[in-house]
């Protein structure tokens, strides 16, 4: 083969195709093609041939078969992912409600003390677990501990909380008077409520994002098609919208409660 066009100063790699000069026994081998390549540098030229052989009588390599998911499998995957998303969204709603309930609005509500923790025999415990909390009227709370020795600890915990309440300890129970909120304080609380509602919505969106990632993963694994993922994502968006409306509803209710004198 002529190589007159090759210059040793070049550093490129070139390839050409040619028919082989040596034919193997036709009963055993057939030559599909012969690839000849060379590379050169300032000091040498390297010639290399690559030959592809096919042995007759051996099974040919087959293309992979991609098995699409059945409708039952698709529905099962959808149900599992959607169930997980709904459970997490329910917890997000519960978290928003818990935050709302702990906000003082001028009316007595046992849930106002939900986040108060008491040092009880060396360990922090929730106030609700060691005392009964009731509402004698709309402007006061009554805390009756199951163990009277914890009265001092309960009183201290309420004082140290951010509720702004002054406990009255008579040695038997603790009474809490709920003062009326000023107009300025109500506006501040409405902003806090709005922020907590938005945090809840962000949590819902993040849960939706995680579910979409689960669908995309199944698509990459060839278990779901692109159309399957689009349909499932649309259904998931409906679930997301449903929970967004729930948060908006409880937010409006809490906002009205905070702003109503």
Automatic annotation (TrEMBL):
Gene3D superfamilies: 3.30.1360.40, Ribosome-recycling factor (1.10.132.20). Residues 208-242 form a coiled coil. InterPro entries: Ribosome_recyc_fac, Ribosome_recyc_fac_dom, RRF_sf. GO terms for molecular function: ribosomal large subunit binding. The keyword Transit peptide applies. Keywords: Chloroplast, Coiled coil, Plastid, Protein biosynthesis, Transit peptide. GO terms for biological process: plastid translation. GO terms for cellular component: chloroplast. Residues 99-259 form the Ribosome recycling factor domain. Pfam families: RRF. It is found in: Plastid, Chloroplast. PANTHER family: MITOCHONDRIAL RIBOSOME RECYCLING FACTOR PSEUDO 1, RIBOSOME RECYCLING FACTOR. Belongs to the RRF family. Responsible for the release of ribosomes from messenger RNA at the termination of chloroplastic protein biosynthesis. This is Ribosome-recycling factor, chloroplastic. It comes from Lactuca saligna. The lineage of its organism: Eukaryota, Viridiplantae, Streptophyta, Embryophyta, Tracheophyta.
